[in-house]
Design goal:
This protein is of the alpha/beta class. It has three domains: 263 residues, P-loop containing nucleotide triphosphate hydrolases (Rossmann fold, 3-Layer(aba) Sandwich); 39 residues, no CATH class; 71 residues, Orthogonal Bundle (Arc Repressor Mutant, subunit A). Helices cover 39% and strands 16% of the residues. It is built from 14 helices and eleven strands. The strands form two sheets. It has a nine-stranded mixed sheet with strand order 2-1-11-10-9-3-8-7-4. It has a two-stranded antiparallel sheet with strand order 5-6. A hairpin with a 5-residue loop joins strand 10 and strand 11. The N and C termini lie far apart (89 Å).
Length: 410
């Protein structure tokens, strides 16, 4: 058959979907109202089963409205104890309306550098949850929460065995029983609106953290919704695509963009304003008309939620100290070993590395400081001009003309 668009577009309202029997009776843990099929049946998807969602579409295709409807679907069904949200919005306009609702773990993150920290926190939280689950010998968050509920109902205390030291005489390890602090774990949904902007600011870090979350966070109850305006290969890289089996494409500008996100053409012929192709995990593609939610409605919902309670923010999600600790962890060289400087200036760090290791070459500085060739070359030129190293010989080696600070003082 041939699909023909209607002469008059029908508006699908979120209210209809929330009131539908499918949504009310659903057993889904994180039910999302995606819209209606061409036959008018509601499409209700489960984010917990997806387990992560990739959304793409040009400006004006209805992408941000769809993200609003997904957020409202979650807020409509789940209490703050059951589901917490982390929202990353580099555009500063789309999601900032949700600031102050009790479901948020941190105020809406608008600074791309803070976004990296928030995503790294999500990775650490995932690892922490896995440790807790392994102690209870459960396989996912539902099993953990069920086990905690049973223990509380029965008044049971769950203990774990921890090693506290070694016996002085025999040298054997000493173990003690420790009572576990048991609270049900909420789902955490991380929503990133405009991935392209984050990839420009911190591409490698963002890609690495999103890859880790996408690969492992499902069992820990952490789910990622990723939206982007530019579905090109430098934003949606192969690693990111491989870990997001469920995808939604709104209208895109070219066949190439459609192939990037869905793996086949067709999204460039959509009609815009909420017309989407929804690709479920198995690769089946369904055409869906997304529901419309006005800004006024979103504001009313947010105002109502704010009367229900204040958000309990976790400072650790975006605190800079965490970022510092992360840097020390991943540093190629140890800053303490550099001796002569605590500075963050790459030039001073490079001088310290050269004087300490007695190796002066552009490629060595590149490796130790993890910087690009152009920057390393200009640092070497500056060292030569300031008389720290000599000119390069035929093999590219340079003589070091200055001694390290300690020897110099003697």
């Amino acid at each position: 058959g041939i699909e023909l668009p209607n002469t008059r577009r029908e508006t699908v309202f979120l209210r209809e979907l929330l009131a539908s029997q499918d949504f009310e009776a659903t057993k889904h843990k994180l039910a999302l109202c995606l819209g209606k099929t061409i036959g008018g049946e509601p499409v209700i998807a489960d984010l917990a089963r997806m387990p992560h969602l990739l959304v793409a579409g040009t400006t004006g295709s209805g992408k941000s409205v769809a993200i609003n409807t997904m957020i409202l679907s979650i807020l409509y069904r789940l209490k703050p104890e059951e589901c917490r949200l982390i929202m990353v919005d580099p555009k500063m306009l789309e999601l900032s309306v949700y600031d102050g609702i009790p479901h948020l773990l941190t105020p809406v993150v608008t600074d791309p550098k803070k976004a990296v920290v928030a995503l790294k926190w999500a990775v650490r939280e995932m690892e922490e949850r896995y440790k807790k689950m392994s102690k209870l010998s459960v396989r996912n968050i539902d099993g953990f929460n069920a086990r905690v509920g049973e223990a509380k109902a029965a008044g049971e205390v769950i203990t774990r065995t921890v090693q506290t030291g070694f016996d002085k005489h025999s040298g054997e390890a000493i173990y003690e029983e420790e009572v576990m602090d048991l609270e049900p774990l909420p789902y955490i949904v991380v929503i990133v609106d405009e991935m392209a902007d984050l990839m420009m600011v911190a591409g490698k870090e963002i890609e690495g953290t999103i890859q880790r979350l996408a690969q492992m966070a499902r069992a820990a109850g952490i789910h990622v919704v990723l939206a982007t305006q530019r579905p090109s290969v430098d934003v949606i890289t192969g690693t990111i695509k491989a870990n997001f089996p469920t995808r939604i494409s709104f209208q895109v500008t070219s066949k190439i963009d459609s192939r990037t996100i869905l793996g086949e053409m067709g999204a460039e012929q959509l009609l815009g304003q909420g017309d989407m192709l929804y690709m479920a995990g198995g690769g089946r593609i369904t055409r869906v008309h997304g529901p419309f939610v006005s800004d006024n409605e979103v504001e009313k919902v947010v105002a109502h939620l704010k009367t229900q309670g204040r958000p309990q923010y976790l400072d650790a999600v975006t605190s800079e100290e965490e970022e510092g600790a992360e840097d020390e962890d991943g540093a190629v060289f140890d800053k303490t070993g550099m001796g002569s400087t605590d500075s963050d200036d790459p030039y001073e760090q490079a001088v310290a590395v050269v004087l300490r290791d007695k190796k002066a070459s552009t490629s060595y500085i590149q490796r130790r400081l993890q910087i690009g060739y152009n920057r390393a070359a200009s640092i070497m030129e500056r060292m030569e001009n300031e008389g720290i190293v000599g000119p390069a010989n035929h093999a590219g080696k340079r003589e070091i003309l200055v001694e390290a600070q300690g020897q110099h003082d003697e």
